[in-house]
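Thread: O-antigen ligase, structure

OP (GT): Posting the sequence first so everyone is looking at the same thing. Length is 484 residues per the record. Can we get the structure tokens written out before standup tomorrow? I want them in the notebook alongside the other entries.
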Amino acid sequence: MAKTIFHSTEKSNFILNMNEEQYSKLASRGLAAAMMTAPLLTLVPEITDKASYSFTSGGLVIGGVIAMIIAIIGLMKKYISKWNIFPVCAMAAMVLWGIMSLVKGCDLEISFYGFPERGEGLLAILFYFCFFTSAASLKRETAIKTVIDGIVGVGILNSVIALIQIFTGKLSHYRLAVDEVINAASGLVMSPLFLAMLLTLSLTAALIGFLTSEEKKRRIVFICSSLLFSFVMMFTYSLIGFCGLGLAVIIAFIAAIVLKAPKKRLVCIPSCLIAAGAAIAVVFGGVIGNISSYKLYDGVILWWSDSYKRASACAIYDPEKVDITDTLDVYTYLNYKSSEIIRKNPLYGVGPDQLGLVTLNFSEEIPQNLTLAQYIIHPNNKGSFDKVYNEYLYTSVTRGLPSLAALVLTLLGSLILGIKSFRRRKTVEAFTVCAVTAAGVLIYLICCSCIAVAPVFWTAAGAACAGITTDKEKKAQKKLAKKK
């Protein structure tokens, strides 16, 4: 007899009575759609200045609720097993410790909902957990394939918008870099640096897809996507873009060897490099803005264009302390200052999404009747910052070292299980999600989380440790069941 809740009808309990095949199909499609919601709603503030990036937060809420429902069903049906319970529990511990950081933070509302225009408070972290758990509960290879398609799809969506930003300067807050017109691409993820991270994940998945797919149509989509991603990444004008491209190419080369891809398909690697080179050539040709040479703008983008101009999350940089045009100097300075704050608040951090508040120079010279945004960007707060572009440092400084430990355990658990899954299942899907996770783990050393990109990463990480049984194991289980 079918299971029911509170003696209700069998039809009303369709979800509870789904088998693994039905659940995985529904869950994977739900996750693919949920990864799109935050970027799609970011269109609103990009189109009109009258709207704020609370629309992006709303998109995360929609996607997060979808992921939460899927996760609850997966837990009810016991699809989180001994196989992957460790990374799931480790991430749950990270969320729980976030509550402690929230309580210790100076602003409970920001701790929970996140800073306005950022939105990465405890609620966002809870939704990341839901994406991770939902993906970890998938039980079919076809479901993992759908997730991979979703990762590539998010990259395509953002890259199409990025092309409009690059060649017209519209739909973007990154047309200017102080006094230069650079038309930097941010897609629908709020910053060129975050776009570079997203496209690292999407490019990794697309390259492996082209190398291994048996379907001609899919290979065409994957190679076109790879060229598009490589081209757009250069218009993020960032170190992350170059490192991400290099990382994806290296992983693709490893995939070709491990998965024994046809040698002729290795053409995708030089093709991507040519596409990236073409993007740089376009800049040197004077086609973009008012520049005729290519250089990195990491410091200007992350501090002046994003944190100061777009988000009003910090004041303008202090030229006496940091050279905003020197990429290495900017990252070194942010890492050093963040490390100092961690030493003062090692256990709980400063509170989720509150780094910008603790770097302010509270002064009696600043009028007290200002709004939060006006107070933060006041000239007396010059040199404050709200992000450090190393996710491991950022986790430590905002939510404490215990949260960092939980994050590292989650990621290590996911990677180890991802490698074990590939060795056991020997499928392209198992390799791809593990590779995408590895790319994210490495790129997090020079980038940080964002509510429009994190769902993609955490879905991949969850899928990497999904407990999918092989055909051989299924046959063994059926034989054992017959004997009983």
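GT: Both are above now. Quick notes for whoever picks this up: Residues 21-298+387-467 form one domain. The chain has one domain: 21-298+387-467.
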